[in-house]
Amino acid sequence: MILAFSVTPLGVGEEVGEYVADAVRVVRESGLPNRTDAMFTSVEGEWDEVMDVVKRAVAAVEARAPRVSVVMKADIRPGVTDGLTSKVETVERHLGA
């Protein structure tokens, strides 16, 4: 499964980068394949391990912010591994054709 998620601290002002970094740090330290861009962090693994990472990432932000907003989107496809890379490679291959 690949899960893309966004954690947004509320009630802390407009500069939220340091709070988001707390969440991304949890994801990176998890050891699961992941990728962060300007809008989402994607993490790949089994359901329970991915959801545990998301829960811990949210808790890291929640520890410092009075309110937290979370957006998630999941691609659940049993038997597929390395989807974070292979899905992008497929699109790039088609762009190059």
From TrEMBL:
Tell me the InterPro entries matching this sequence: MTH1187/YkoF-like, Thiamine_BP, UPF0045_domain
Q: Which residues form the Thiamine-binding protein domain?
A: 4-92
Q: Which domain of life is it from?
A: Bacteria
Protein family according to the UniProt entry = Belongs to the UPF0045 family.
Annotated NCBIfam families: MTH1187 family thiamine-binding protein
Protein known as: MTH1187 family thiamine-binding protein
From which organism does this entry originate?
A: Streptomyces narbonensis
